Structures are given as structure tokens and as C-alpha cells.
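Translate structure to sequence.
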């Protein structure tokens, strides 16, 4: 028998026990080997209803078997296939021989650990005559099977013959609910460090909590009126491109033919390194990215996937990890957490149940995964404390896996070099990524609607049409593509397209205004970022300073300037603002770190994150200037700026339009 066939036998046995308990079927000793179809025949008389129900139950049995694949294919890949098959077959035999009636399950309080102990007591593993490594596989698969059986029994609805028709009518949703529970369920692991007898029970409880609470993605700052865009990280997550060398990919304005065009055919380009491959290459990573580039989402995905043991490809070795997510903005006014405090902020409700020394044992084992989010969100003095804190943890636990995130302004590439961290830069999304992002975003909204956590402003069946409309608009409107290369702003476009019934603002100025409001005002405020309170500028002041810088860049025909020249421009703008009491240096540092619009991609050089923002802000400045400037030479050499000038001047009173038309 193959390993896969043995796994299928376990899946069938688990579902047979679950269905027997569900239907209340009392089986005699000679009926223990009854198939699913035999059990269903007892409780369901209608032939076609019975056939449909059996197919759905067999689908669940296949899912249970599939859950075992990482255990026998990865955790025990060094074991010969015949020994792996023998171990799995022994588990199937043990589940059959243990006589797990509904009375038995309820006698152990439908508790997976107690159930596994009962099976071991009734059917000792020595009966299978397995070698020691195969016995370890047997134990791991038995624990996984008992956990799965308990979860299925808990999820099956009460069965009453009178309500049979109604129950069968909604059983597809029951299957979907059980599938979701199994997907979120942590995998058992033999790599868990030994400690108190409560360690494994707490580990499963903690991982289940992480799997459920961190799988929600709320899109802060996006201005929608008709629904609230909440999705699952595990559904919406998109693997992003990164760079690992000192060169950060600059602003690349791709020609139209590099975008998906007719028939929504995706034009593929050369593949870059994906985030998962970069993370797998080092146990310590400093992940840097601009505002809205997906840093926090990536950390949440790592935590959720680690909790479920769902890594594949380059990160498969991370399965069995116990994740600890530390949001640094929560420590603005208090000391960074000690090891035993690492579960706070994510699993506060479990703090009182934490076995003494449990976190230390996870850290010491090398199976812990520390995820530290938002160095840039702390004030500079506190960032130094973060480095000291990390240094202390790594000195005590040198095998600890760590991923730290920051915007570039909050941590230079070499900020953690002495601690052995490899710097990785999140890149802008390619056209292929944008298409995939749009598809995943709409899939995630469909999933949220089906789970009834979001009330969509349209029917679920209409979502593909909304996605196609957005893709067509990205093809047709170049200014949209400039925004869509950022995950945050691409999500904004998806959300606005859905909220406004496929009618994105035809006026690009309104769209740029919304995007800048998201970056400059709402996002940090809604996330309560401490670093945003160092320099407090109103939105109008921020825009005025950025407009002045953008205008001078465009007037010089430049896309970037030396930092000292930008500092002089900021000083000139601040000097005209009597209500601003900060130094030009403080204001520039704040804009580089928190605005999400201005950045310092290379030390000493400053540019705008999106060329579109530079053009829009420069055009706004030109229109609002009191003095008259001959713009014709500039407009002749920069077609897109000319378009921005005309669009900007069209909004508001006719005076600026006359001035612009005179020179452009």
C-alpha cells in the first residue's frame, strides 16, 4: 500500500467515527469495519440524498488525508516509503480497533489529547512492530488524526430525522465550515520542546488563537461609504518581489505594452526574487519597504501560516514554528517585552494560562519565529532600544528566527548588520503582480461575503465583472497604473471601484487627492502610530511643502535631488508658515519617514515614491502660485506634466486656467 493510500484510509476512518457519532449509530463489534455508505444508509433513507451526502463526507475524508501530507512528506521525508506507509496504516488500524463510539468520545470530553491517550492505551503501538523512527511518525499522525476527529465532531450540526431535509439542503455550507476549521487548525509537531505536561496543549491553543485572530486584514484609511473592506490575510496575500542588493529598484515608468491589455492577457516579464525565497535564505532578515508596500501584511501571513504549518516551497522548513508578533507601536510608552510577555498584544486572553517557562522553551528550541513590525513607527531614541533588545534576545537564543520590518527612513540597510541581519527591500508591484493582486482582492471579498463578515454593495456573482472593469481601466488610464504599483493604493482602487459601482473618479485630480489623503492623513491616525506625533503638521501644511519640492524638481527637469537641496526647499516653504515651529531638518525627516510620498532611496538622494505624485503636486503648485511663470519650455518637454497642469487648472476658478493656457 502506498503512503497516500494509507493516508486516505486514515481520513476514511476519522470520518467514519465522526459520522457514527453524528448519526448516533450504535455499532456491534462485528460492524466496526462498516463503510461510510453503510452508516449513512442507516440514517438517511432517500437514495439520491444519501449518495450526495456520501460524496460530501468523502470529500472531507480526502481533506483530512491531505492534512497529513506535510507530516509524512516533509517531517519524515528521510524515512523509507514502506516504513511511512506502515506507520500510517498502523494508525488507521488503531483507530478502527479502539472502538471510538460516541460514548467514548464524550467520556474524554471530546478532547484530542485525552482521545490520543485512550487510543494508545487500547491499542499499544508495539502491536504494529514499527522501527523507532516509524513509531515517531505513528505518534505524530495519531495526534493529528485525533485532533481532526474532535474538530469534525464539534462542527457537525445536531442530527434529527425530522429536520433531515433542511439539514441536507445546507450540508454544503457545513462542509465549507468544516473545511475552513481544518484550514485554520495548527499542525501537531514532534519538534515542540519538552517542558511541562501542559506545553503541547497550550501550544495548540496559542497557535489556534494566532491562526484566527491574525488572519484578518483591515484596510486602514480607505474612504468607502457603502461597506467595510475586511478580508482574510490567508486569502488576499500576494507573494511580492524583493531585492537583496544595495540597489533599490527605482521608479520605472513602463510603456503600455508591458501591461495586461487585450483580453486581459497577462504579459510576463523576467522573474525577480520573491519574498519567501529571500526570507528562507537567512534566519535573520531586516525587511524594508515604503508606506503601503505590504510589510505588515507579510508578517501577519507569516504568523498565520506558521501557526497552521502551511508553508511550502522555500519556507517549508519553517513548518512547526511558533510565531510571536510584536507590534512596536504598542511599546511607545513602555518597555519592550521580556520573553514571557511575547504573547501579549496578540493573545492577551491566554496570558493567565501560560505554563511557566513556555516561551523560553520555544525560543531555546530554535522553533520560534519572532516577527517585529514597524521600527519606523517609534521615535528615534526608542529605535536604538529595539536594536539593544534584539541583541539581548539573540545572545540568549542564537537559533531564533527573526524578521524585522521598517520603512527605509526608520532603519538603514546596515542598521542590524552587526547582529547578522540580511537586508531585503520590497519592490513595487509589476503589472503581473497588479493583476494577481486585483484577482486576490476580489476573491478575498467574495470569501468575506460568503462568511457573512462583509455586506457587499453588490451580489457576489458580480465581483468578477467589477474586477474586469478595474483591469480595463488600468489598461486605459496610465495615471491609475502609477498608483496601482503599491499594494495599499491598489487596494484603494479596488475598494473605490466596488464602492462606487465601477465608477472610479473620472477626474484624476480627485483620485490623487484621495490617495494623498490616505497616505498623509488617515492611515497613521487610524493606526495610532507614535512616530507620527513627533512632528505634528496639518494636512494643508504637508501638501504645501510637498508641492513646493515637487515644483522645484519639475522646474529643474529632475526626478530626484541631493538631500541638502531638498532641505533648503523645505526650509524656504517652512519660512512662509508662521504656524510651523519645527526646524526644516525635523520637517524633512518627518516627511521622509511618515508621509509615504517622499523618500530617500539612496543615502543623500531624495525623490517622490510615485512620479505621478510629483507631477500632480507640481501642477498644483504652479496653478496656485501668485506670480506668473513661463511654463511653455517645461510643458513642451514633459507631456504628462502638461496634462496635469491643464487638469489641475480646470478645477476651481478660471483665473489659473487662463494663466496655464497662456503658457502651456
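Result:
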Amino acid at each position: 500500500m502506498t503512503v497516500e493510500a494509507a493516508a486516505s484510509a486514515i481520513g476514511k476512518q476519522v470520518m467514519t467515527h465522526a459520522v457514527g457519532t453524528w448519526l448516533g449509530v450504535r455499532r456491534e463489534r462485528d460492524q466496526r469495519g462498516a463503510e461510510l455508505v453503510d452508516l449513512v444508509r442507516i440514517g438517511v433513507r432517500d437514495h439520491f440524498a444519501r449518495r450526495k451526502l456520501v460524496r460530501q463526507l468523502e470529500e472531507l475524508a480526502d481533506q483530512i488525508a491531505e492534512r497529513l501530507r506535510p507530516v509524512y512528506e516533509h517531517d519524515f521525508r528521510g524515512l523509507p516509503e514502506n516504513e511511512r506507509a506502515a506507520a500510517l496504516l498502523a494508525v488507521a488500524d488503531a483507530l478502527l480497533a479502539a472502538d471510538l463510539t460516541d460514548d467514548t468520545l464524550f467520556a474524554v470530553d471530546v478532547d484530542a489529547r485525552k482521545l490520543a491517550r485512550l487510543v494508545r492505551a487500547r491499542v499499544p503501538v508495539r502491536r504494529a512492530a514499527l522501527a523507532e523512527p516509524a513509531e515517531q511518525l505513528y505518534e505524530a499522525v495519531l495526534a493529528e488524526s485525533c485532533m481532526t476527529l474532535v474538530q469534525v465532531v464539534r462542527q457537525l450540526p445536531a442530527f434529527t430525522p425530522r429536520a433531515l431535509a433542511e439539514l441536507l439542503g445546507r450540508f454544503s455550507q457545513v462542509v465549507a465550515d468544516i473545511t475552513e476549521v481544518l484550514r485554520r487548525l495548527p499542525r501537531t509537531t514532534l519538534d515542540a520542546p519538552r517542558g511541562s505536561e501542559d506545553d503541547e496543549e497550550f501550544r495548540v491553543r496559542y497557535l489556534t488563537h494566532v491562526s484566527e485572530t491574525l488572519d484578518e486584514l483591515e484596510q486602514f484609511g480607505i474612504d468607502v461609504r457603502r461597506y467595510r473592506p475586511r478580508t482574510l490575510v490567508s486569502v488576499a496575500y500576494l507573494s511580492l518581489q524583493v531585492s537583496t542588493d544595495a540597489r533599490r529598484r527605482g521608479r520605472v515608468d513602463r510603456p503600455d505594452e508591458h501591461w495586461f491589455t487585450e483580453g486581459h492577457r497577462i504579459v510576463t516579464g523576467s522573474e525577480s526574487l520573491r519574498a519567501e525565497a529571500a526570507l528562507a535564505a537567512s534566519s535573520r532578515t531586516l525587511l524594508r519597504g515604503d508606506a503601503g508596500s505590504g510589510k505588515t501584511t507579510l508578517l501577519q501571513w507569516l504568523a498565520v501560516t506558521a501557526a497552521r504549518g502551511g508553508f511550502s516551497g522555500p519556507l517549508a522548513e519553517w513548518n512547526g514554528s511558533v510565531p510571536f508578533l510584536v507590534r512596536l507601536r504598542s511599546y511607545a510608552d513602555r518597555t519592550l517585552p521580556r520573553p514571557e510577555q511575547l504573547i501579549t498584544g496578540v493573545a492577551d486572553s491566554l496570558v493567565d494560562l501560560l505554563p511557566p517557562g513556555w516561551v523560553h522553551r520555544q525560543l531555546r528550541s530554535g522553533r520560534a519565529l519572532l516577527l517585529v513590525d514597524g521600527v519606523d513607527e517609534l521615535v528615534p531614541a526608542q529605535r536604538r532600544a529595539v536594536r539593544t533588545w534584539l541583541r539581548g534576545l539573540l545572545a540568549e537564543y542564537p537559533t531564533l528566527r527573526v524578521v524585522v520590518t521598517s520603512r527605509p527612513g526608520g532603519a538603514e540597510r546596515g542598521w542590524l548588520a552587526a547582529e547578522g541581519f540580511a537586508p531585503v527591500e520590497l519592490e513595487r508591484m509589476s503589472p503581473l503582480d497588479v493583476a494577481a493582486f486585483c484577482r486576490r482582492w476580489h476573491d478575498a471579498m467574495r470569501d468575506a461575503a460568503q462568511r457573512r463578515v462583509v455586506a457587499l454593495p453588490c451580489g457576489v456573482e458580480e465581483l468578477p465583472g467589477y474586477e474586469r472593469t478595474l483591469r480595463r481601466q488600468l489598461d486605459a488610464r496610465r495615471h491609475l497604473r502609477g498608483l496601482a504599483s503599491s499594494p495599499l493604493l491598489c487596494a484603494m482602487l479596488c475598494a473605490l471601484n466596488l464602492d462606487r459601482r465601477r465608477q472610479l473618479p473620472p477626474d484624476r485630480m480627485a483620485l490623487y487627492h484621495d490617495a494623498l489623503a490616505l497616505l498623509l492623513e488617515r492611515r497613521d491616525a487610524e493606526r495610532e502610530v507614535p512616530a507620527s506625533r513627533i512632528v505634528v503638521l496639518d494636512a494643508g501644511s504637508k501638501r504645501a511643502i510637498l508641492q513646493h519640492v515637487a515644483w522645484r524638481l519639475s522646474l529643474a527637469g529632475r526626478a530626484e535631488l541631493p538631500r541638502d537641496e531638498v532641505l533648503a526647499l523645505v526650509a524656504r516653504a517652512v519660512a512662509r508658515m508662521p504656524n510651523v515651529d519645527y526646524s526644516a531638518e525635523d520637517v524633512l525627516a518627518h516627511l521622509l519617514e511618515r508621509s509615504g510620498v517622499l523618500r530617500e532611496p539612496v543615502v543623500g538622494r531624495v525623490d517622490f515614491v510615485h512620479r505621478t505624485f510629483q507631477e500632480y503636486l507640481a501642477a498644483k503648485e504652479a496653478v496656485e502660485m501668485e506670480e506668473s511663470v513661463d511654463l511653455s519650455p517645461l510643458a513642451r518637454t514633459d507631456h504628462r506634466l502638461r496634462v496635469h497642469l491643464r487638469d489641475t487648472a480646470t478645477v476651481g476658478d478660471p483665473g489659473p486656467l487662463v494663466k496655464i493656457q497662456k503658457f502651456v
